[in-house]
Amino acid sequence: MTTTQSIGVAVIGAGMAGRAHLAGYRAAPTQYGAGLPEVRLVAVADAHEPFARDAARRYGYQRAETDWRAIAEAPDIDAVSVVVANHLHREIVEGLLATGKHVLCEKPLAPTVADAQAMVEAAEQSGRVAATGFTLRRSPAINAIRQQVAEGPLGRVQHFNGHYWCDYGHHPDAPMSWRYRGGTGTGALSDIGSHLVDLGEFFCGPVRSVRGAVLSTQVPDRPVPLGTAVGHSADVQVSAEREPVENEDIATFTATFDSGAVGTFSVSRVACGLANSLGFEVFAEGGAATFDMARPAEFTFADSSLPAATSGYRSVVVGPQHPYIASGLPMDFPSVGHGQNDFFAWQARAFLEQIAGLNHLPHCPTLADGLHNLRVLDAIVSSATADGKSVAVQ
Ligand SMILES: NC(=O)c1ccc[n+]([C@@H]2O[C@H](COP(=O)([O-])OP(=O)(O)OC[C@H]3O[C@@H](n4cnc5c(N)ncnc54)[C@H](O)[C@@H]3O)[C@@H](O)[C@H]2O)c1
């Protein structure tokens, strides 16, 4: 791919994550301007016009649209983030690829494996950059741990233990939204479990089989919102009418990886008091590491080759020596830290650099990675349906 003179960007969906993408494209060239072509902030599209207009104003995009097709047809747009409800991803991604756009589609790629397969085929035919938004892979701390697995003292992972616990569904009157609709497996498992499965594979390689899966719905119905809800919808008024919840609040399962590693996973959207609690432990042949998203610029690390007197877990604050943030932060020293929103800027940077043909950082996950992720989720649903039996990933 040749270097592009300038890249016009747009975001479809101005909800919770859409705003993170809008901010990400703003931040990427301010932090990494020397290496990137000019980035033009062209348009934001949201079916709810006030959201589109407000987002365009706040984040400094030239146009607000209400129909994604206006983005697909616009000649001044090259790269588009698709950040709407999962069941809308396929139609929009296929439409964008057909008009020659580079696409960054949010996770989970689609509600079904069949949809995702079609999206992968569309991407292959298009020849465009087509990425899946496994944003956590752009975390410097998570990458620093992986580097210690691949090249450092940790070596082969034996056990990955991860949780992703959120409370957005804890209150029984949290309003109905697209997150609670769709069949078994499209709830907490897809919404947040997709990230955790991807991280497990980031450290251990492909999942071979899953077993012991339990999917449980704790809140059977939810009130219909009176207004347009965004993200986890905590602040929208609700009516007295209630609708049935169609998917799971909790998912737990174990996995075996091709590498011989074992994974234990716990996912919940009804975890009281925990807004966005992702954490994991990686136990490996040469040591161990832990990550807690409450402190996103840090990790702990234990090297088992050290003498007993000085071994043990030590905290590492990720700083400007890490290639994802080197020379990129305004205050460029470790203790300043960074937050979870910054991951979207580094994801945007990676996507834009790939489009420009700059290859000095790992590429974004592909749509095929998003398809594979859905195959693992599918196996988890099959295991749960069969009372926890072992199911191989297709
Ligand atoms: N990578 C991450 O860390 C991360 C975090 C949160 C959400 N997500 C993903 O992002 C996507 C969106 O999640 P969200 O929480 O931002 O949802 P949201 O409900 O907050 O926002 C969705 C927006 O899409 C708009 N919309 C609905 N139909 C539309 C259409 N046809 N065309 C254009 N806009 C339309 C809605 O008005 C709303 O503003 C999901 O796929 C979700 O899984 C990813």
UniProtKB/TrEMBL annotation:
Keywords: Oxidoreductase
Transport is among the record's keywords: no
Domain GFO/IDH/MocA-like oxidoreductase: 143-288
Domain Gfo/Idh/MocA-like oxidoreductase N-terminal: 7-133
One Pfam entry name: GFO_IDH_MocA_C3
PANTHER family in UniProt: BCDNA.GH03377 (PTHR43818)
Name of the protein in its database record: Gfo/Idh/MocA family oxidoreductase
Organism: Streptomyces lonegramiae
